[in-house]
Each structure stands twice: as structure tokens, then as C-alpha cells.
């Protein structure tokens, strides 16, 4: 394991995934990248009356703060190298999988909210999609 990709969105389960990915990267002496999939994209926002540049900027600032916090946690554990990235995408799982494959990551860490029953059927599971379609091992943290 040389390159780990950790998906984060600021949720409670994603924060657990961040902590786990940091420890895993330390143990494996691997490079760690945090990824946040931006949805809606800037292109989406430009075609609607409901968003404006202030709202888009506020959303971007929130994402950057979440990535910065993940990066700080990694640095507090003396982990190097650590990277952060954002990618646009309507299909979050596909964006994570594509980034991992295109950038030669050999492990993905993601959180899971653990939906069951009807909620899982109606909403799907990003973690489940990543597991079923990723080219590499995936660790789901709950």
C-alpha cells in the first residue's frame, strides 16, 4: 500500500474515516490524499436563480475548512506526505473511484452512515458503490 485516498465530506462518519486513514497511512508509511466531491458544481450553479456567487463562495470555504482540518490532524500525527483535492461530480462514488484509478491510489477509505431498509434502497449507498466498482481495496469506517 503506497497511496491511500480518503473521501471526506465533513460528516461524522467521514471524520471517523479521516482518523482511520491517518493511522492506516502511518502504519503503511503511505502517501495520503483527502478528497471532497463538490456537488453541485460551479457549472450547475451558473444555470439557476437559487444560487449566487456568495453562496457558492460560502460552500467552497466550508469544503476548504473541512479539508484543512483533515490535513491538520494528519500533520499532528507527523504524517507526510499528505494532499487534499476537490473534484466536481454528480455521482459521488464514480468521482471517488475515477480519481483513485486515474491517480494510482491503491486503497480507498470512506465513511458510511449505515442506512438500512427502505432508506438504503431509496438513497443507495456511496460506500457500497465504491466497494463494488473500485479497482482497489476499500475500507469502510462506521
Strand order of the largest sheet: 3-2-1-4-5
Indicate the CATH class. Answer: Alpha Beta
Question: pLDDT below 50 for ≥5 consecutive residues: which ranges?
Answer: 119-123
What is the count of structural domains?
1
Percent range for β-strand residues: 15-25%
CATH arch. level architecture: 3-Layer(aba) Sandwich
User: Total strand count, please?
Assistant: 5
Instruction: Assign an overall shape.
Output: globular
Radius of gyration: 15 Å
Structural classification: alpha/beta
Helices and strands, in N-to-C order? EHEHHEHEHHE
The major pleated sheet works out as: 5 strands, parallel
Q: Kindly state the mean pLDDT as a whole number?
A: 87
Query: What is the H level of CATH, i.e. the homologous superfamily?
Result: HUPs
Distance between the termini: 22 Å
CATH topology: Rossmann fold
Q: How many helices does DSSP assign?
A: 6
The level of helicity is 40-55%
How would you summarize what this structure contains?
This protein has 142 residues and is of the alpha/beta class. It has six helices and five strands. Helix content is 50%, strand content 20%.
Throw out a few tags for this protein.
five-stranded parallel sheet, 50% helix, 142 residues, globular, 5 strands, Rossmann fold, alpha/beta
Amino acid at each position: 500500500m503506497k497511496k491511500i485516498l480518503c473521501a471526506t465530506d465533513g460528516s461524522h462518519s467521514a471524520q471517523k474515516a479521516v482518523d482511520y486513514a491517518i493511522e492506516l497511512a502511518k502504519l503503511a508509511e503511505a502517501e495520503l490524499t483527502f478528497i471532497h466531491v463538490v456537488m453541485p458544481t460551479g457549472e450547475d450553479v451558473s444555470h439557476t436563480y437559487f444560487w449566487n456567487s456568495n453562496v457558492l463562495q460560502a460552500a467552497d470555504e466550508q469544503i476548504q475548512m473541512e479539508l484543512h482540518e483533515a490535513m491538520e490532524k494528519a500533520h499532528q500525527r507527523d504524517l507526510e506526505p499528505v494532499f487534499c483535492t476537490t473534484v466536481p461530480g454528480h455521482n459521488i462514488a464514480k468521482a471517488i473511484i475515477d480519481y483513485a484509478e486515474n491517480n494510482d491510489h491503491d486503497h480507498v477509505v470512506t465513511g458510511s452512515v449505515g442506512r438500512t431498509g427502505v432508506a438504503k434502497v431509496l438513497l443507495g449507498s456511496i460506500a457500497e458503490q465504491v466497494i463494488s466498482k473500485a479497482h482497489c481495496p476499500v475500507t469502510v469506517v462506521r
